[in-house]
Amino acid sequence: MLLPKGEEALATISRSIYAKAKRWSDEISTEQSDRIHDQTIAFLRRIKPGTEPQLSQRLADLGFDSHDVIELVEAASEEFDILIPAQSLAMVETVADVIANIRELVAEQQGWMMASGRPK
Fold first, then answer.
1. Predicted TM-score (pTM) of this structure
2. Dist. CA 81–CA 64, nearest whole Å
3. Distance (Å, rounded) from C-alpha 94 to C-alpha 53?
4. Structural domain boundaries of the chain?
5. Which of 60, 76, 101, 107 has its CA at 20 to 30 Å from residue 53's CA atom?
């Protein structure tokens, strides 16, 4: 299987992430979705003080490195009580990708908990 390269690959990956997030977004409330957005932006600001993250900005353009992404994963895991597989954020590029990925994981894991009869 040949994978697209460069900007085309990023566009393909972003579309895939957004499609999955859209499917799961119906599973979480607007209030919860807004909270995920707001908290994720707050995490980004805390990790890189002085930045004003915009949805279309790439994490690299904000100065994020792999250590910062790990810190973001830890903060989001704790705040939203979710497990974030290392590979799930490996392909995200933009702030919007991060938020969409976290929304997807929250909805997916809540759906699993509801389906298995476990409390949230």
1. 0.70
2. 23
3. 10
4. 28-115
5. 107
Q: What's domain 28-115's architecture?
A: Orthogonal Bundle (1.10)
Bridge partners (DSSP) of residue 58 are 94
Round to the nearest angstrom and report the end-to-end CA distance of the chain.
Answer: 39
Length of the chain as a residue count:
120
Q: Which amino acid is it at 98? A: V
Please report the DSSP string for 47-115 in residue order. Answer: HSTT----TT-BTGGGT--HHHHHHHHHHHHHHHT----GGGTTT--BHHHHHHHHHHHHHHHHHHHHH
CB 79 within 8 A of CB 39: yes
- pLDDT one digit per residue (tens) for the chain, 120 residues: 444 555 666 566 666 666 655 555 456 788 888 999 999 999 999 999 999 999 999 999 999 998 998 899 899 999 998 988 877 767 788 999 999 989 888 888 876 544 444 444
